[in-house]
Amino acid sequence: MDNLQAITKPVAKEVEEFNSLFATILRGHNPDFQSMIDFISGKNGKRIRPLITLLSAGLCGKVNQKSIDYALIIELLHTTTLIHDDVVDNTMERRSRPSVNAKYDNRVAVLLGDYILALAITRAVMAQNLNIMEIIARVARFLADGELTQLINSREIILDETRYFNVIRNKTAVLIAACGEMGAISVGASPETREILRQTGENIGLCFQLRDDIFDYFESGDIGKPTGNDIREGKITLPLLYALKTAPKAKSEEMFRLIETKNYTPENIKLLTAFARENGGIEYAERKMREIKAQIVALLGGFPASEAKNSMLQLVDYVIEREK
Amino acid sequence: MDNLQAITKPVAKEVEEFNSLFATILRGHNPDFQSMIDFISGKNGKRIRPLITLLSAGLCGKVNQKSIDYALIIELLHTTTLIHDDVVDNTMERRSRPSVNAKYDNRVAVLLGDYILALAITRAVMAQNLNIMEIIARVARFLADGELTQLINSREIILDETRYFNVIRNKTAVLIAACGEMGAISVGASPETREILRQTGENIGLCFQLRDDIFDYFESGDIGKPTGNDIREGKITLPLLYALKTAPKAKSEEMFRLIETKNYTPENIKLLTAFARENGGIEYAERKMREIKAQIVALLGGFPASEAKNSMLQLVDYVIEREK
Lengths: 324, 324
Fold this sequence. Notes:
homodimer; mainly alpha; Farnesyl Diphosphate Synthase; two-stranded antiparallel sheet; 2 strands
């Protein structure tokens, strides 16, 4: 049993039902493009978001059908953003398989993403809860805002930590915040509890993205996946941002010039990632994660001991320490 | 006063308010990409959809704030599909100005389309009417379905009129059907009346797309815009479809081969459009529009005489006869 499986235990039955319902939702569409939907359906990720939704529900009540329904809406919304983001970033691989744009083309990916988003909206309407629909509308806005801001910022070199955190909040943390909030709503939690779980989710989302961003500075052991993808796309994430601001001026100016000229040869990417690593960028980002974790622990302090609470805390460690 | 202005008269005040509110909705966003939204905001189309929404409301009651609110949701949804469709079709010009993908790039267009869609969903949620949200979710699904089916079908040569009508129903008519239905809902019309106006809208939508498709077989007088854009993208619309099915076998097989080999030189495009024109394709599509118009007239037969009714009937003629 790996870590994630152990963490899932308190909601294992519900996760199973989620998996089965998610597959069902993706069946029976227009035969002209069902095969494309099957392709998405076969690409299961770690499904961290549904897990957070269900654990949040479990933290403050008895997980129920609504908890699962809300998790489905969130995973559909997440799926659509992955498909569109892969077009935007020209990513060719997703979850160890070709991305939709790689397998088909950008045009299919744009429309298939739109179609899955429409399924998410449909499920949100079916929930017949105005609150849920408001959250979904807001999250959809923030997701597009975050990705768009990141794309635009990648044209200039902005060394502003606040802006970095705003982007990762919008593009990643807001959706995970919705997991916490919607999980709480599904079991009728009080507004105060909803807010606590919303903030918990948001903080987990920040850690999730920080860890994701750190990966880009290391070679992946198993497949020798090239590092520096973010840098190549003009995304300066926290480790490099920190190093550029704090390293000796001569060195950081040299790195600045590499970025400015977008001269992203394999050698220069190596120089930039090594520069970030050697100037405390990784440690700084890890420190940030530990600070955020402390906030999460404080937020969850008021909940009585439970399996779900244990799992949620273990999940935070998993998100921070995971190796892929 | 041109035709459209005369048609607008019974709801002129509301159209004006619509225009002003639409501009307001598109203001005050993230400064990082407000200029991109301004660019969209400046590209006003004919705004046929809000007009149909308002006239539908006027046909069965007194146009009110809800009618305008619903028109705004529809125009936002329409805007997002234009932006994404231009990416999918690689269209460089829209409303005599560069498309978003041409002005910026495909990546911006994907995300900006997502953002505008999120605004549409937000407005739909603000309407606090489950019915409206259901319609919007359904329309979003059909729009993506229609575009995706068309894209996939463009890879093979399908001479099936039913399939052609299904595609134009999904990609165009379903949204205009929603204009009729939502206009009726906005003034509290009965379910029967809603259904009549939904069907009216759907039929107007079919005519709208048929006329749009016919344009592609003629050179545009004013700017000498090249014809055959649809054909070049593998879209066989009704005039060519009809000609391929009914022209003498030898000739249509020759044309079939041109399409099969995708040998779309300017000369071959000329051959194909001339073939459709010379073999009754245009007349056939125009006959279809007249048949649909007769259905619309029958659908509206039960409404008492009114300015709005007059305008709606004139609008049908405008849609069928317009020259751009």
